[in-house]
Amino acid sequence: MDPFLTLLHSFSSSLSDSELSSLKFLCRGKIGKRKLESVQSGGGRFSILLEQQLIASDKVSFLEGLLENIRREDLVSQLKQFVEEGEVNGPDDQPDVHEKPIEVICENVGRDWKMLMRKLGISEVKMDRIVAANPFNLQEQLVQSLREWRKWKGKDAKVTDLIKALRSCNMNLVADRVEQ
């Protein structure tokens, strides 16, 4: 499955009706009115943008501008992260050294993920935005939170900090697995 299409699908399902209307308005100069009126979903609008080659996995500036205009910074950051992580270069890339601990944590931390994020210093507002962007996907909420932490810390994002936070949350088994 194409990772870019998966990302667009995720975006379309998280957009409200008013945000979809705003997107329709913003696309008026690029897409004909008749074509815009015939499509009611976010996915349909993204399909038109793809067909007209206004967006592609290696051409995201127009999409980024649209998302910024409707004030969906959470989606803008997901888009930037998609580009930064090299998904546009293909799935054959080597995984980031930080991805393995994140994968282990995601497989083993459940509903207590917010406690872990608080120990790592992620704000309630950021966690609420992540939950709003992924309302029914607990694992994705955790993944996005850990990525947000990593982005926030930058080069200071250390696996040892993850292990300390896990241990302070009494998630010792997960901490042991991350250490391995």
Discrete helix count: 12
CATH class value of the largest domain: Mainly Alpha
Low-confidence stretches: 88-98
Cα(first) to Cα(last) distance is 31 Å
Layout of SSEs?
Blueprint: H1 3-14, H2 17-26, H3 33-38, H4 42-51, H5 61-69, H6 73-84, H7 99-108, H8 113-120, H9 124-133, H10 138-153, H11 159-168, H12 172-179
Helix pairs in contact: 7-10, 7-12, 8-10, 8-11, 9-10, 11-12
Please characterize this protein's 3D structure.
- The protein has 180 residues and is mostly helical.
- The protein has two domains: 3-88, Orthogonal Bundle (Death Domain, Fas), CATH 1.10.533.10; 99-179, Death Domain, Fas.
- Helices cover 67% and strands 0% of the residues.
- It contains twelve helices and no strands.
- α7 (99-108) runs antiparallel to α10, α8 (113-120) packs across α11 (159-168) and α9 (124-133) packs across α10 (138-153).
- Residues 88-98 have low confidence and may be disordered.
